[in-house]
Amino acid sequence: MKTIVYIETVNGKPINGSLELLTPSSDLGDTIAVLIGADLAEAASQVAGYGTPVLLVDTPSPCPDSVLAVLEKLVKDKKPDAVLFSATQAGKDYAPRLAARLNTGCVTDATVLEADADNNLIFTRPAFGGTVLEQLSMGGLRPQIATIRSGSYAKPARAEAEVEAEAAVESVRIPVPENSVRAKAVKSVQEITETINLEGADVIVTGGRGMGNAENYEMVKELAALLGGVVGATRPAMEEGWISRAHQVGQSGKIVAPKLYIACGVSGSMQHISGIMGSKYIVAINKDEAASIFNVADVGIVGDVKEVMPVIIEEIRKRKEAF
Amino acid sequence: MDILVCVKQVPDDYVEVRLDPSTNTPATAAIEQVNNAFDTYAVELAVRYCETNGGTVTVVSIGPERSKNNLKNLLAVGAKKAFLFCDAIFENADENAVASYLSKAIKKCETENGAPYGLILCGKESTDEISGQVGAILAEKLDLGFVSSVIEVEPGDEGLIAKQETEEGYTLYEVSSPAVFTIAKPSYDPRYPTIKSKLAARKAEIPMFSAADADIAAEAGKVICLGYSEPPKRKAGIKIQDMPGAEAAVKAASIMADDKVL
């Protein structure tokens, strides 16, 4: 079967969530990786380095409506069996709108992708806060459009070739009719400048409402720094203003799968727990012995974070120094 | 400018949904149905807009007759009109079909309202299916401008200015009216009803329409559900309790070291 993978870029670089899609798409058959935007030649050759043919659509000052217009034209021309997006904010906008324009179906947030003998895809996606998984299909409808959650697949290994790009990059221009841009971006503001890679982190230390205040939250940051990890947050901690929303873990934040996840003062709402289920080892500290987080923790400490955390930090520091 | 907010009835998301072992489908029948949280944010945003700039807010829902009570709750927090579309053909609709039904129901609402809507809002996603598609597809069916994850709306020189929440900040879009926006969580919470507004809403009559009333024909789904499963469960490990915090911390660190996770 033929699949178009839309490669999203941030600051001129392809995002991991998009590159990961080249793994299932190459298992399914032929892939065209599509990049749409301005100054993306470098990103395109980087994608080609994974051995996938790339179509680069040079589109000056791209905005959601113009990218969508290009995608619509491209998909009508290429007639793929499937179009895959990473389940980012942008991907989740493009996929259903594209499906509506092509009168086909769309599945969002899929985590597993399988094909039957007729190349009809079966998508598995979480629903109800992640406690239930649905198996969905579009039958014989084409193209089958979906967004896939980042972390569902591993990135393919890069081609070992000495040459810059193993596969070819084809550059095209697709004119965007002016009337297709209805929402005109007038201003974009970057409020959060830190780059938080929760999805790729080996260690995540998360603080919840039980941390009590911003001052205590510093212990979460200290422990994360000590372990070379990333700071996570629950929705309440973020809403209290102790930390920016870029750190949020769970259904409405990032779905994570670190080797070590330490939850401090986190009660464990199902939305949070379903976002951390992929973690290899979970440690939880909470003063409420009935907190749901203990149901999924490999090590649970029933105690006050203010008493437990300074000692844990000290103990880990001692052990690190002993090495 | 009048604003229409599309509201979905969902099982209360504080209750954990599991599969019913006898049917292998989500056991939601016993869970109280509530207005989807993001839709209530959309209502509050719409009411605030109209309080400042004029116009009224209508809420519309597709669902069973008992949804009327939830719609009354929205009349108690600032919505002026509520319409319910109730018909057997609406059951088990996928996102594309729901968006299609809504696109036609909206025409009926406009007739009932006596004026077109300058803005149509949906929550960015529902807390049950969490698919986030209906608002986007609705914009396409209505052939209108679309902005997702909006947290503020202001009147602009050429229509509306929508502030979209992004991962690293925000983007402002200018869109001509009418438009479809999906609403994320703004910086404020929805207001509470007063005793007076609650009593008035209780007495309100909510017009209910069938599919035929709005010239809506049944649509086959594009996405079919083949079945359900539950994610693999995690087992709880060691729980350290009934000892002073410091002692528990030393023990935990030692277990973690033994398990080689440090």
Write the topology of this structure:
The complex is a heterodimer of chains A (323) and B (262).
Chain A: E1 2-6, E2 9-10, E3 13-14, H1 16-19, H2 22-28, E4 30-37, H3 41-48, E5 54-58, H4 64-78, E6 82-86, H5 89-101, E7 106-110, E8 112-115, E9 121-127, E10 132-137, E11 144-148, E12 169-172, E13 184-190, E14 203-207, H6 214-226, E15 230-233, H7 235-239, E16 260-264, H8 270-276, E17 281-286, E18 299-302, H9 305-322
Parallel strand pairs in A: 1-4, 1-6, 4-5, 5-12, 6-11, 7-11, 14-15, 14-16, 16-17, 17-18
Antiparallel strand pairs in A: 2-3, 8-9, 9-10
Helix pairs in contact in A: 4-5, 6-9
Chain B: E1 3-6, E2 9-11, E3 19-20, E4 25-26, E5 33-35, H1 37-53, E6 57-62, H2 67-75, E7 81-85, H3 95-113, E8 119-123, H4 134-142, E9 145-156, E10 159-165, E11 169-175, E12 179-183, H5 195-203, E13 208-209, E14 224-229, E15 238-240, H6 245-258
Parallel strand pairs in B: 1-6, 1-8, 6-7, 7-13, 8-12, 9-12
Antiparallel strand pairs in B: 2-5, 3-4, 9-10, 10-11
Mean pLDDT of chain A: 93
- Extract low-pLDDT stretches of chain B: none
Which sequence of SSEs, written as H and E, runs from N to C of chain B?
EEEEEHEHEHEHEEEEHEEEH
Q: Largest beta sheet of chain B, briefly?
A: 9 strands, mixed
H-E order of chain A: EEEHHEHEHEHEEEEEEEEHEHEHEEH
Q: Helix fraction of chain A?
A: 25-40%
- How many DSSP H or I helices of chain B? 6
